[in-house]
Specification:
7-stranded mixed beta sheet, 30% helix, binds alpha-L-fucopyranose
């Protein structure tokens, strides 16, 4: 027998495999650019201090601060051209179809305004502004005479700090965005009486007024609504609690003769919030009347309740070395714990960047230092917004997934108007771009803006949340959203002429183009990604209907349509998976989107068990695309390779994702990572941070193929994690080295769980299992089956036999 099995029946140990170790980003000089400063946030408001010694800038953010306004983007003439566009596609005249789309099948108005929507109705996510502090220090020479400088961000308690000595005085600053008091808190101290003096102002590049009300510094203004008027209003207030003297001037506050000072910043907008002014004043009053130690301990406790759910160590404990130096050194000398730090940072960014009841993470998370953010800092629905939420379930932050789920529910009415207005269709649809004003129309340029599976892709997240947290009540809540999305495709897909397959038309494969009769064309029918998303949407809708025991007729309609979806096609000439219905040649072989592998990840349509014949086609596809690309593109590829069970290639992509920006002859071109570990598209775009975090999790634990697989694509020779979650409702802890794996499995739900264990060596392995009851069998492919009650815990230990 290949695997020798020993079963033990005894009481279960429930200890955590590894406690949380210190996770910190730190630097020995102030930030010289924004992407070196430390992001802080509580899911609603954010702050990024640069740690400047004499002059410090703290970039402020509010996740709801958007210009623009609600618009009706239905272009009434578009629908008249839909039949002709489809006719052209059916006749193979794709270029002509595209020309017609470019002219007629687009939103009314400027759409995203070519990603410069700050002053258009579409709007953009903007920085709230800057808090600038000028410090009077030591001899006030303003020469850089400081010593012992260090600044950093402690991920364990979500607090940033700066410390240094100047003129014989030790200065310390501490910054956090309170998860409980909902204000920004900054503590400034000197170790000598009266050594602390500074003045400060609030401003932003446009649309603001600053003034003092007594000793409270205020900034207020209104965003451009995109129609020439005032849109969203905001108000920011800052108060100082100090043992020194505070003086208010017209637009600034000054403190002198102090040993310590606490700055409290309260801010809000009137986005769905009529009482915002009162809210700002109340939060400010309450926090400034609370002791700093209390503010800090409450903040830490609330943050840690989420952060401490997961621990991870890769090979060795964290190094105490400056983060920018580690990032560079990692190019030549492997630093495994840097990847663990990156993983923890991803969870940190999610806990700090979004919270229940607030808006979802945008392209910037919630951090921006400009008025016109790249791509409007919006919600891109053809990969980017969804990628931000990939780690939510597996890394144990399911409640934060709700911000995306709520957003999806909210865009349905707008999506219904778009479905009717552009397609005369039932149900709802969202295309490529969206915003808090709930834009769902095709964007202004059909080459990238007309893919119509953006909303359907969001629906995947609704069902994933169910898979990780099975609950019929939740299924009932989301079923109408899934059904509405499915209805749209049932009423809009057309039969293509060669096989009578049902396909989306018109559409495109995210943002790629192909060659046809010498032209570069994007518009097509039935791109592989659309088919995969629609298949998944249909299957998930059927599953939800089955859980609820409803809608037999509708389910039958879906089942019939499912039979007519195109199969996945492997190119006869190249062995890759076809991106389009026809085996077109792509204009950019290294294109950043690898949309036709949607079925491999995030979906589960291609797996070694289900479609062994397609695994090679996926590999060939990825080899053609290469291992470069924008930040998020590299992050996606980590996950693809993990699903192909290739830990080494996943690792290569992870390393590429952590390519230090600026290392390439000082240029900031090409994807990678900035000194503050923000992902570089470039520019900064946060999706890659989350895609990378999800990728590391995917290397350690998978559960998309009917079983839970421990270490399916692990590059690291030893390590440990705790608190990762699997579909079906299982929490997994594991520690491993070359000869042993120990794991603890906790069932959050009653169920039958299949667990696949790694092959430590090709030799026989010994399994010791502590479940306290039934006997278990380790099959030839290392699978075990567990019937678990809710709350039940199983520990197991797998050893090489020798
Ligand atoms: C997608 C990508 C771009 C960029 C933008 C925000 O459309 O193709 O690279 O990430 O979103």
């Amino acid at each position: 027998m290949r695997n020798l099995i020993i079963l033990l029946f005894c009481l279960v140990a429930t200890t955590n495999i590894n406690a949380q170790e210190k996770q910190e980003l730190w630097y020995n000089k102030p930030a010289t650019r924004w992407e070196e400063s430390m992001p802080l946030g509580n899911g609603r408001i954010g702050a990024m201090p640069d740690g400047g010694v004499y002059r410090e800038q703290i970039v402020l953010n509010d996740i709801t601060l958007w210009s623009g306004s609600k618009e009706n983007a239905v272009n009434e003439e578009a629908i008249n051209y839909l039949p002709q566009i489809r006719e052209l596609l059916l006749a193979g005249k794709n270029k002509e179809a595209e020309k017609m789309m470019l002219k007629y099948f687009k939103c009314k108005g400027p759409g995203t305004n070519h990603a410069k929507g700050a002053n258009a109705p579409y709007g953009c996510f903007q920085t709230l502004g800057f808090l600038t502090i000028n410090y009077a220090l030591g001899q006030q020479t303003k020469q850089a005479t400081f010593t012992n400088y260090r600044r950093g961000l402690n991920l364990n308690d979500a607090v940033a700090y700066t410390s240094f000595e100047e003129g014989g005085v030790k200065y310390q600053r501490e910054y956090f965005v309170s998860h409980t008091a909902d204000v920004i808190v900054i503590k400034l101290t000197a170790n000598k009486a009266k050594a602390l003096a500074f003045d400060l102002t609030l401003d932003r590049p446009e649309r603001f007024t600053t003034y003092c009300e007594g000793q409270t510094l205020c900034m207020k203004g209104a965003m451009n609504d995109g129609l020439g008027g005032n849109g969203m209003n905001y108000l920011t207030q800052l108060k100082i609690v100090t043992d020194g003297q505070t003086k208010a001037s017209a637009q600034s506050l000054a403190v002198s003769g102090a040993k310590k000072a606490y700055l409290i910043i309260s801010t809000a907008t009137d986005f769905n919030n009529k009482e915002y002014k009162q809210q700002v004043a109340d939060l400010l009053a309450k926090a400034s009347a609370t002791k700093y130690t209390k503010l800090l301990s409450a903040h830490k406790a609330a943050y840690q309740a989420k952060f401490n759910r997961v621990a991870l160590q890769l090979e060795v404990p964290q190094k105490d070395e400056a983060t920018d130096v580690r990032l560079k050194n990692n190019l030549t000398e492997e630093d495994p714990s840097l990847y663990a730090l990156y993983f923890h940072y991803g969870r940190y960014l999610m806990i700090s960047g979004t919270r229940e009841g607030s808006l979802p993470l945008n392209l910037q998370g919630l951090w921006a230092n400009t008025v016109q953010t790249p791509w409007n800092g919006d919600y891109h629905l053809n990969i980017n917004m969804q990628m931000c939420y990939w780690p939510a379930e597996v890394t144990n932050l399911p409640e934060l997934h709700n911000t995306l789920i709520d957003f999806t529910k909210k865009i349905v009415p707008s999506g219904e108007v778009t479905a009717k207005g552009f397609y005369g269709a039932d149900g709802w649809v969202a295309h490529v771009v969206s915003n808090p004003w709930l834009f769902t129309a095709p964007a202004e340029h059909a080459s990238w803006g007309a893919t119509n599976t953006g909303g359907a892709w969001l629906c995947e997240h609704l069902w994933e949340h169910y898979l990780f947290n099975p609950s019929p009540a939740y299924a009932a809540e989301i079923y109408p959203v899934l059904k509405g999305a499915a209805r749209f495709f049932l009423s809009t897909m057309i039969a293509e002429p060669s096989h009578n397959w049902l396909v989306t038309a018109p559409s495109s494969s995210p943002e790629n183009a192909y060659r046809l009769n010498g032209d570069a064309v994007s518009v097509c029918m039935g791109p592989a990604m659309d088919t995969q998303i629609v298949r998944e949407l249909f299957e998930n809708t059927l599953s939800a209907a089955a859980v609820l025991g409803v809608d037999d007729d509708f389910s039958l309609e879906i089942k019939n349509a499912l039979k007519r979806l195109p199969p996945m096609q492997v190119s006869p000439k190249g062995g890759y998976l076809q991106e389009w219905l026809e085996d077109y040649e792509e204009t950019d072989i290294h294109h950043r989107h690898t949309s036709h592998l949607y079925g491999l990840y995030p979906a589960n349509q291609m797996t070694p068990a289900k479609t062994p014949e397609l695994m090679n086609a996926c590999r060939t596809t990825l080899d053609r695309r290469g291992d470069g690309g924008t930040g998020w593109s590299r992050a996606w590829k980590i996950n693809f390779w993990a699903r192909l069970k290739d830990g080494e290639r996943s690792f290569k992509l992870l390393k590429n994702l952590l390519y230090p920006m600026g290392a390439n002859a000082g240029t900031f071109q090409g994807g990678g990572t900035y000194a503050n570990l923000f992902c570089a598209h470039p520019p900064f775009q946060i999706d890659g941070n989350f895609g990378g975090t999800a990728g590391i999790a995917e290397m350690l634990l998978q559960s998309h193929d009917g079983f839970v697989e421990i270490l399916p694509a692990c590059h690291w020779k030893k390590g440990s994690f705790s608190g990762l979650r699997a579909r079906g409702g299982l929490t997994v802890d594991a520690s491993w080295n070359a000869t042993q794996l120990k794991a603890t499995l906790r069932a959050n739900n009653e169920g039958v769980f299949y667990i696949r264990l790694p092959k430590l060596t090709d030799d026989a392995q010994t399994l010791t299992l502590k479940q306290g009851r039934k006997k278990q069998v380790l099959s030839a492919d290392n699978l075990i089956k567990l019937n678990l009650k809710k709350g039940e815990v199983v520990t197991l230990s797998l050893n090489t036999a020798k």
